[in-house]
Each structure stands twice: as C-alpha cells, then as structure tokens.
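Attaching the record inline, Q. Sequence:
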Amino acid sequence: MIELIGNNAGLVWNALSDGGKMSLKNLKKETKIKAEKDLYAALGWLAKEGKLAFEENEGEWFVSLV
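Structure, as predicted:
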C-alpha cells in the first residue's frame, strides 16, 4: 500500500509540475488515478511533506505545488 501511495504521489507531483494549478477533478483525470481514495492518499503524502498548496474557489478545490 505504501508503494502505491508513493507512486501515485509521484504522478500527482509530475502532473502539477507540468500543468500548474489544477482542480481535483482535472488532477484525477490527468494522473489517471482511478479511485478517489488513492488520489487523496497521494495528496496527503505530498501535503505532509509541505509540497502542496490548496485553494477553494466557488466550492471547487484546486491544488498546486509550493
């Protein structure tokens, strides 16, 4: 499980590095991570490391690299 979360965290980081700030919906689509729980685990991993910034705009969440 830890390996899956780490691999997904790498997919998230690469997508944000290439595409900049994204909505969670677009990030899920861009990374092709199928399960929302897997996306959230990857986001948690990167957030704990201090690598992400989160922003809410009109009820939609966006994430970007710090």
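The first helix runs from residue 2 to 19. The first strand starts at residue 22 and ends at 23.

More tomorrow.
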